């Protein structure tokens, strides 16, 4: 923590004391960095915020959602495979999805259902979904950077007071399920800002502190004095601009207001729901419906990529009870988000995706569950200017393997980059050796662009 003296005040006990403004370090990834550290590598960004920008809301269904109980119902499969759910018609003739998603069915013309996601591994983490690469790719350099980190590096902040990459996921016991996406070889400067817990408390200047800031130059002078005291070697000489940008975040209300749901109307909050009670959470994420609403607010405030984890889908037992619970809640908040973005004129600019690290076994086990199944999985997308109201790909009769149009997960990530305004076939980032690295080795889905 930095304690910077900015004046004298007298408290109600009559004792005159020095008032201190405490500005805490915030957590980025596994490291603790100051805001100035976070901002140091972004000096080349466009200093003029845009009123509109491309955005991504990435919803990770940690644990592996059961594709054959969601978007790919197998009514003609044997009983030990097809499960308990029936298909229901949607707003798009010829497309049916699982009965737990009636709202999504009514809004199917706004969605893309991918039934044949391939290339995933049997790993309980989000790495392939957030990067488009296998986990061991460039591991000796720190690994591949996630979409959010790449966007933060290449496109910078829309508003200097709002981080471009924000991770909303609450910490989970199985930590990879709350991973918003790692910065990889780009380094911790481009990790997600995580406002949960003490990070947000450190972001807020309380009223007393604000009363002692007649202008931001006072605080800047305090930083300059601190720098002169601590830095005799000139290491911090180049930090002035980054410190000023850090102060923009600390003294601006834009980010704090975006995170404050009390500013939303009760009607809007009711449409999203709160996802409670949290069931089947165990070591995973809760079903926080309001995170999707906060994600929309953050995008409006200037964030480019907002990542969150929703639920714990590792259904080795009671699979169908879990899908009824998680599915019904996801059905409510995901449709509310898409309708909300559409009503606000943001849907063409903001891409929404919900998917997990792999699928589930075709055969139901003795505990009425489905186990890990990497050969095929699923995804649902909306917005981003895509051609929606369609299904891409299919699986065989049992839902075990891709049949028509296998879709590699890297193609999906390439599509997300494309929707964010980055051409994955030509755009590169430099690795620590100075060598340019492509964002992903795949092309966007031609069916949607």
Q: If you had to describe this structure to a student in words, what would you say it looks like?
A:
Pfam families: DUF1501. This protein has 449 residues and is an alpha/beta fold. The protein has one domain: Alkaline Phosphatase, subunit A (3-Layer(aba) Sandwich), CATH 3.40.720. It has helices at residues 35-39, 79-82, 102-106, 127-131, 147-155, 198-203, 207-211, 216-230, 240-251, 254-259, 266-272, 290-301, 319-343, 409-419, and strands spanning 2-10, 16-23, 26-28, 31-33, 55-60, 87-89, 96-98, 111-118, 165-167, 305-309, 350-355, 359-360, 372-373, 377-383, 390-392, 394-395, 402-404, 407-408, 428-430, 436-438. Strands 5, 8, 9, 10, 11, 14, 15 and 18 form an 8-stranded mixed sheet that branches. A two-stranded antiparallel sheet has the order 1-2. It is globular, with a radius of gyration of 23 Å. The N and C termini lie far apart (48 Å).
């Amino acid at each position: 923590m930095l304690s910077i003296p900015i004046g004298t005040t007298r408290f109600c006990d009559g004792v005159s004391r020095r008032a201190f403004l405490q500005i805490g370090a915030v957590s980025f990834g596994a490291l603790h960095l100051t805001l100035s550290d976070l901002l140091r590598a972004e000096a080349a960004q466009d200093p003029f915020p845009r009123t509109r920008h491309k955005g991504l809301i990435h919803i990770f269904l940690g644990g592996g959602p059961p594709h054959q109980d969601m978007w790919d119902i197998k009514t003609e499969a044997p009983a030990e495979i097809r499960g308990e759910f029936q298909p229901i018609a949607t707003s798009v003739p010829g497309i049916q999805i699982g009965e737990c998603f009636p709202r999504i069915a009514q809004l199917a013309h706004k969605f893309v259902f991918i039934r044949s996601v391939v290339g995933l591994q049997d790993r309980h983490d989000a790495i392939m979904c957030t990067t488009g690469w296998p986990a061991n790719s460039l591991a000796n350099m720190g690994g591949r950077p996630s979409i959010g980190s790449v966007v933060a590096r290449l496109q910078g902040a829309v508003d200097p007071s709002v981080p471009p990459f924000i991770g909303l996921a609450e910490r989970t016991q199985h930590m990879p399920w709350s991973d918003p996406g790692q910065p990889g070889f780009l380094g911790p400067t481009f990790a997600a800002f995580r406002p949960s817990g003490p990070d947000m408390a450190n972001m807020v200047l309380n009223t007393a502190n604000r009363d002692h800031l007649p202008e931001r130059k006072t605080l800047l002078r305090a930083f300059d004095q601190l720098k002169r005291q601590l830095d005799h070697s000139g290491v911090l000489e180049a930090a002035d601009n980054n410190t000023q940008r850090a102060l923009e975040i600390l003294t601006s209300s834009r980010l704090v207001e975006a995170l404050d749901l009390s500013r939303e109307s009760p009607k809007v909050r009711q449409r999203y729901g709160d996802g409670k009670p949290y069931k089947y959470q165990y070591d995973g994420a809760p079903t926080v419906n309001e995170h999707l609403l906060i994600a929309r607010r953050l995008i409006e405030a200037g964030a480019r990529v907002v990542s969150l984890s929703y639920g714990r889908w590792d259904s080795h037992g009671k699979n169908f009870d879990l899908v009824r619970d998680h599915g019904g809640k996801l059905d409510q908040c995901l449709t509310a988000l898409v309708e909300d973005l559409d009503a606000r004129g943001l849907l063409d600019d903001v891409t929404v995706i919900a998917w997990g690290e792999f699928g589930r076994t075709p055969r139901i086990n003795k505990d009425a569950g489905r186990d890990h199944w990497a050969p095929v999985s699923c995804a649902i997308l909306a917005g981003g200017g895509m051609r929606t109201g369609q299904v891409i790909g299919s699986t065989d009769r049992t839902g075990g393997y891709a049949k028509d149009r296998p879709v590699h997960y890297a193609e999906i990530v390439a599509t997300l980059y494309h929707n964010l305004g980055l051409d994955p076939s030509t755009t590169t980032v430099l690795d620590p050796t100075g060598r340019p690295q492509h964002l992903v080795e795949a092309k966007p889905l031609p069916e949607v662009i």
